[in-house]
């Protein structure tokens, strides 16, 4: 939202943002410091680099509680996947996330096997399914909108739901809450242009880095 002038509505919005008149008083006493938020991601020609996320051993059922406790919504089929034995968390693993935007393909070519082939050509890998939860927690709906996306689909190894379908977890801004959602995954499934496809960039060890220098 852009504000072009200082009117009563804008003043009220500022007061509310500071937490009411008590917050205004604290701000005037330097009790509240306002800083500009630094964007955690950048985009270059349809490729978004989301930076890194680090796992902490949170299990699927724990993710349901963790997300809902902080105001996120978890789709029923996402619960199904998080409760699956095939959702296998890690701990202390840092993943660099790269998102390929749907606009990189034409509508007819934007199918799963082509997306995965492009990721492989770029040297990207399948992330752990937990990366979808870490993305959902890290990025607000407003940030996902600023990326020009509706969904960020984690292109992990598909997990079979209780109906036998292969599913992928994703972060979705649906307009009625910040969702952890699911999408069916088939090699010939066609995707919309408003989706972004999250992959992992391989980690380079200190020894490999030194060898390449």
Textual characterization of the structure:
- With 213 residues, the chain is an alpha+beta fold.
- The chain has two domains: 9-37, no CATH class; 42-202, no CATH class.
- The chain is 31% helix and 25% strand.
- It has helices at 8-17, 21-28, 60-69, 76-82, 112-121, 130-138, 141-146, 206-212; strands spanning 42-44, 47-56, 73-74, 91-101, 151-154, 159-160, 166-173, 178-184, 195-201.
- Strands 1, 2, 3, 4, 5, 6, 7, 8 and 9 form a nine-stranded mixed sheet that branches.
- A hairpin with a 4-residue loop joins β7 and β8.
- The longest helix is centred in the first third of the chain and has 10 residues, at 8-17.
How would the blueprint of this fold be written?
Layout: H1 8-17, H2 21-28, E1 42-44, E2 47-56, H3 60-69, E3 73-74, H4 76-82, E4 91-101, H5 112-121, H6 130-138, H7 141-146, E5 151-154, E6 159-160, E7 166-173, E8 178-184, E9 195-201, H8 206-212
Parallel strand pairs: 3-8, 5-9
Antiparallel strand pairs: 1-2, 2-4, 4-9, 5-7, 6-7, 7-8
Count of domain modules: 2
Spans where pLDDT lies below 50 across 5 or more residues: 205-213
Q: Treating each run of at least 4 consecutive H or I residues as one helix, how many helices?
A: 8
Helix content: 25-40%
Give the SSE order as H and E letters.
HHEEHEHEHHHEEEEEH
The main β sheet shows up as: 9 strands, mixed
Round the mean pLDDT to the nearest integer and report it.
88
How many runs of DSSP E, i.e. beta strands? Answer: 9
Overall structural class, as computed from helix and strand content, comes to alpha+beta
Overall 3D shape: globular
| Gyration radius from CA atoms, angstroms | 20 Å
